[in-house]
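B., you asked whether I could sanity-check this one before it goes into the benchmark set. Here's the sequence:
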Amino acid sequence: SNNVTGAANVTLSGELDAATGDFSGAVDIAGDLTLSAGADGALTFSAASSVKVVDNNAAALVLEEANSAYLTLVTSNSSEAVLLSQDTHIANGKGLVVGHASQLAFANSAEVQILGTGGADSRIALAAFVDSAVGPGIEFLKSRNGTIGSNTIVEDGDGLGDIVAYVDDGTDFGSRAGFIRFQVDGTPGANDTPGRITFGTTADGAAGETERMRIDSAGLVGIGGTPTEELDVIGSTAGATVASRIYNSDNSNTASHVEQLLQVGGASGGDPKIRFAVSGVLSWHLGVDNSDSDKF
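And here's what the prediction gave me:
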């Protein structure tokens, strides 16, 4: 129970062997254990030893930064470098970087980054090994509440999640080549959350993306604009033709046909037809009259 100063071999109740410096039992430390700066300033544990923090009235291992100190984990165990048997929590505003010593500043400087110099070390793999139809997935969640875990309903047009491709343009990492975006598509309510998916690419010479296609909450698909039919191809550039093509490039077989099928459910259904229209002026139909002996 006495304070001991200076360089000396000390035996504490038979638990510290003065000859070898080995602990043969437990040592209780009521205050701080300080390692003085030396050749390596290290506390070394022999082979097959371990450091344990035993939960005795909420005990904890606290690593506190002082003078730019940091924690380095080094191991020669090829199977388990760091083994965590419980959930791991990182404080809000802090990050996790894999493959580099600091976060890379680009986009919104995401707090979780995987930075690599090859294909394998810059990828994320998700795998599900389960005897059911469940597969792995990436899930987004959006709330308008500023408190994590609390509820405030989203609004029409709110972004729900983006998948974005950033590139190095030779000056920085802020340029984007394309995106897939999820948004609210209508007025939401309890168990009523209409959504749309939009796809965008960046044109040659442009600094940002342009929406190219969307699938709205009704399942309508629009290429070049907002759809009003099951499939809309929309253009608005003056002097440009809006066209679609079905093309078979084979030129070696007479059975290599190209066809467009317009089909109804049966004799009691409607007419398969093509409509020609000038907005607000005229409309013509070309097709089969299913109600009149299939006249063309």
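One thing to flag: The longest strand covers residues 175-184. Otherwise nothing jumped out at me.
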